[in-house]
Amino acid sequence: MPIKIDESWKELLREEFSQEYFEQLIEFVTAEYKRTTCYPPGSKIFAAFDRTPFEQVKVVIIGQDPYHGPGQANGLCFSVADGVAHPPSLMNIFKEQQKDLNNQYPNSGNLESWADQGVLLLNTVLTVEQGKAGSHQNKGWERFTDQVIKTLSNEREQLVFLLWGGFAKGKLKLIDEKKHFVLTSGHPSPLSANRGYWFGNKHFSRTNRYLQEKGKEPINW
């Protein structure tokens, strides 16, 4: 399976790509994509890295694994392809953004415009079998994406990490909070949001305020 990924990441992760666990992971993923329907499309598995080069990353949002319904996943966490109905978590993200920034609720759930501005939309597991959430967990993806988070923390400064929900908060140990700005809240899923753990976190305005304080362009959410 050819890995479509920006050169900056290829260089940084070269060592990871050559490790035995990663070779076994790619063998597993290749076999699964041949055996059954998996998401996202093969060419978009590494879309987050291809869309947001390493040196352009300003914000990191950590998701779990891709949407597992037909036509939804496009390789960016929480994002769906143009014309696809917004999943509940994404709807709540947009509602919070609308309230926080006084924005219009967007028509499209495609977050490629965020990625193009330096928001790395990173799922910790990059593939999934259709209709089976979590089906590609514990195959090696987590080891790979943990290394990505560590590399960002070690090699860059003044990034914003948005950790939504318990799973994402578990990655806090990989991040140097002295160098980076970390915001945590409940997950935007209805279960968490309706219990009051998501709405009102103001992560979008707080991110932009920090970026501007550091002399960086804010994100046009």
TrEMBL record:
PROSITE patterns per UniProt: U_DNA_GLYCOSYLASE (PS00130)
A GO cellular-component term linked to this record: cytoplasm
Uracil-DNA glycosylase-like domain segment(s): 50-211
Pfam families the record matches: UDG
Superkingdom, taxonomy of origin: Bacteria
Localization in the cell: Cytoplasm
Active site positions: 65 (proton acceptor)
One annotated GO biological process: base-excision repair, AP site formation via deaminated base removal
Family of this protein: Belongs to the uracil-DNA glycosylase (UDG) superfamily. UNG family.
Protein name: Uracil-DNA glycosylase
Species this chain originates from: Nonlabens marinus S1-08
